Structure formats: C-alpha cells, structure tokens
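Model: Ready when you are.
Researcher: Fold this.
Model:
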Amino acid sequence: MKAILTSAGFDNDRLVPVFLNLFDRPVESAKALFIPTALNTPDAREYVHVFLEDLYKVGIIDSNIDEYDLDKPFDSRRIIDYDVVFTCAGDSQYLLNRVNKVNFGIALESFFNNNGVYIGVSAGSDIMALNLPENLGYLNATIKCHAREGHEIGPLDTSSVPLVKLTDNQAILINGDIIEVVE
C-alpha cells in the first residue's frame, strides 16, 4: 500500500517530492480519481478548486483527473485505470458513510494491489485510520489532523494504536511496510 495521509494536502511544498518518490514513472501521465464527497455543503463545495490545485501542484494534468462523488457503486475493475486516488477534506463521517454505502473500500483494495497511491486530506485521512466506527482500517492508529503540535518526525510504530497528531505541514507516509511521519 502507498499513501500520504495529510491534514492540509500539499500546502507544505516539501511533501510534493515525498509524493513523487512513490512513482516509478513520470507523474504527468498519471490518472487521478478525485473524490470531493466530504465537501458536502454548498459553502464547502466552493473549496473544490483548492484541492484540485494540489493535484496540479504535483504534476497531474487536468485531462487526467476524473471526479467521483461516491454517488453510485464504483466498479472495482475500473479502479486499476487510476494511479492516484485523492480524497478531500470535509465531513469525515459523511465521507465514510458514503464510502461504505457504495462499497468503495472493495475498490480501494484492488487499487492498492495495483500499486496505486492514495492521498488523503483531513477527512480523507481520517477514514483510513481508526478514527471512526466502520473505518477502512488501513492505518492501525488514530489521526488528529490540524494539530497545533505534531507528532515526532520519523518512523511510526503502529503496533500499539497510537494517536498521531498532524500539523498542517505534516503527513503520514505509508510505503509498503514502512510507515513514517514526514514534514
């Protein structure tokens, strides 16, 4: 599994090369599935462009980005067409409810098995950890996004289900068996 779980996406430019190192080919050819579902109010929807900017910042071109709002089941065979899944910030519980309703977790399993890279921003990070009941459980930890003081940078031992506080400049990098807090 490859993932970057953030509080604030790529607001910290130092996270861009961390993301790029997860690819074994030019990112300009990468196809991304953009999931704005957690932005579930009209006011929140006004921020869609801010999150799309994160994808542009890492070099993914507009014509290679497809939006999916978790409004219908996703064919898990289609997920292998994507190299990146980007899940926006917003309402974590709403996002997780929609993920579970359309069985998107099953598609994510295929995505990870096909070497895809997941980017979570706040709510998109929360659903991957143990923050909420019926979470996806990809990280054996609880995440607190937007923390004033963050977790120590470096390897992260998740065997004891730690609370990992992330500032808006930090992320949890998962690259196979290696899990670390980066900044």
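Researcher: Now this one.
Model:
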Amino acid sequence: MAEGTDQNCLPAGFSGRVRLFPLPNLVLFPHAAQPLHIFEPRYLSLVDEALSTDRLITMALLQAGWQKDYEAAPPIDETVCIGRILTYARQHDGRLNLFLAGVQRARVVRELNADSLYRQAEVQLLEDFYPKSGSSIRSNMKRRLLQTSRNFLAAHSGAISQFDKVADSDIQLGALTDILAFSLNLGLLHKQELLAEVNVDRRAEMLLTLVSETLSTSDVRVAGYPPDFSLN
C-alpha cells in the first residue's frame, strides 16, 4: 500500500513498530471499520498515545485459552490488521468511544520489550497479491461472490441497501473480499484465516465456499452494519 496521509494509507516513514490491541472477539480487516469502547487503563494509555502521534492501533485476535493469562500477554495470531482512529469521544468517566478503520494487513515478526502498559510489536506489512494466472477469471469470481453474498443477505433489508452500494462500485476483488469477510457472520477462526490469506484469488475462493456452505444451513445471519461496539 502506498504511503501517504490519507486515512486509507499508513503515514510516510512508518517504522514497523505497532501498538497491539488484542481482543478475543474481533477480527478487523482493511477497508472495514469498527467502533470500540475503551475502558481498561492499559488500552486508554494506548489510545492516548495513538491520538497524540499517528492515530494507529493494531488489532490482534487472542488465541484460545486467553482467559488464563489475560492480564499478562496471552498468545495472539500472527496476522494482524493495522487500523487508524477516524473519530473518538471521551466520556465523563475517562472512557473512550472510537471508530477504527482497517488500513493494512501485517504479520507480527516479534513482540518488543516496551516500557508501556500495553503490548508492542515489530511487524512486516502484507500486500494483496494478484496472481497473473487468475486475471482472466477474476471478474467472474467477483460476480459469483457478489451474487452469493447477496443471497446470504437477502433477509436483511438494511444490509442489502449498503451491499448494493458496494456492488455497484468499481471495487477491487481484494477490497470486496475484506469488506464481506468482516461484515458476514462467518466465525472468528474463519475470519482470521481470510485475514491471513494475501493471495486475493485464494481468499475469494475461500470466502465463496464459506458463504455457500453457510447458505446451506439454517443459520444465515449477518453481523450487522454499523457493527456493534467491541469492548476491551
């Protein structure tokens, strides 16, 4: 992703050092946005630091068993999403509500011994990869993915209206898969697998299979948009 000052880009001179915000119930994707309610002291400190500098927070998914060591540093999945704070509101008791936009995938190279309340890491940025071999079938894949996802959302009129805006735009397949993977109720582990896949054609195939399989069951739901607040 090109550097710049746009909210969809990382700042020029990005160092690769990130503030980690691990949660057990959220996988953020590039091109998607999530409201967060911040109340733990360590994450209030994290957000204050982000607001005073680059406004970046990196969301990570806690691995199973995180409850045993939540106050320390339970393991996280290595593929994460760097997000940018778009807006925020501080409450009278010091808590914060904010809206975080996903900017870019990254892979944790190593966690850092930081003198802070929150965890920090060095990351490698991950770019979408479009294989040349898939260029001839990509438009058909996009069409199939849009149609299947629309069937998934057929019972949700509010979601359909927003979906149609996306479908009518000239959106790239990679961005489309990210928006759909974030918005559809596919399960956290499936979402994490989709976040970790940088090959856009494989990610689209994975998503199409997941949506098709879910359509064949009685549990057809959408996560909702705007999404609910995620609590730290």
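Researcher: Key takeaway?
Model: Residues 1-5 have pLDDT under 50 and may be disordered.
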